[in-house]
Amino acid sequence: MAAVDTETLIDAWRRLLTGSGKSWVLFEHGTCVVLEEPEGPLDERATEILREFGPVHVGGPAGDFRVLELKNDVGWLVTGHHPDVVTFVALDESEDPSHLAVGMHGRSKRDQDGRELHVIHVEDARPPAS
Question: Running DSSP on this structure, what letter comes out for residue 125?
Answer without folding.
Answer: -
